[in-house]
Amino acid sequence: MSASAVPSVPSVLFVCVHNAGRSQMAAAFLTRLGGDRVEVRSAGSAPADTVNPAVVEALAEVGIDISAEAPKVLTTEAVRASDVVITMGCGDACPYFPGKRYLDWQLDDPAGQGVDAVRPIRDRIEQRVRGLLADLGIEAAA
């Protein structure tokens, strides 16, 4: 990197099939905890029409409002523009680009689950996001 280059913030893309649950929760936690020190995207290989209402409710319980979010389709441009790509059960539908850092988070799918089943998934995602921030050398916001 040349001396005149401005260091950019790391960019993270969360991908699951429907972009209605796990990837939305992960993006919401990373946005809250990483602030402007990280760029956050989420997408789905086959996006749903709406975000899972139980996911919206579970995040509202911890003070995060994603009621205005909508599932987004996964594009190769989003992958190309990201430093870290975290997949959550989308398998072969996730495009692969050499030089990107890929992580696969095995998490239960909250689709069709009530808020009681979503809470432990939410809490696991928050722990993983905190670990990711530490790996990126970014201190989590309080």
From TrEMBL:
UniProt cross-references to SMART domains, sorted A to Z: LMWPc
A Pfam family: LMWPc
InterPro entries associated with the record: Ptyr_pPase, Ptyr_pPase_sf
Transmembrane segments: none
Domain of life: Bacteria
GO terms for biological process, alphabetical: response to arsenic-containing substance
GO-annotated molecular function: arsenate reductase (thioredoxin) activity
Annotated signal sequence range: none
E.C. no: 1.20.4.4
SUPFAM superfamilies for the chain: Phosphotyrosine protein phosphatases I
Domain Phosphotyrosine protein phosphatase I: 10-135
Alphabetically ordered keywords of this record: Arsenical resistance, Oxidoreductase
The protein's name in its UniProt record: Arsenate reductase ArsC
UniProt organism field: Streptomyces sp. Y1
Highest classification ranks of the organism: Bacteria, Bacillati, Actinomycetota, Actinomycetes, Kitasatosporales
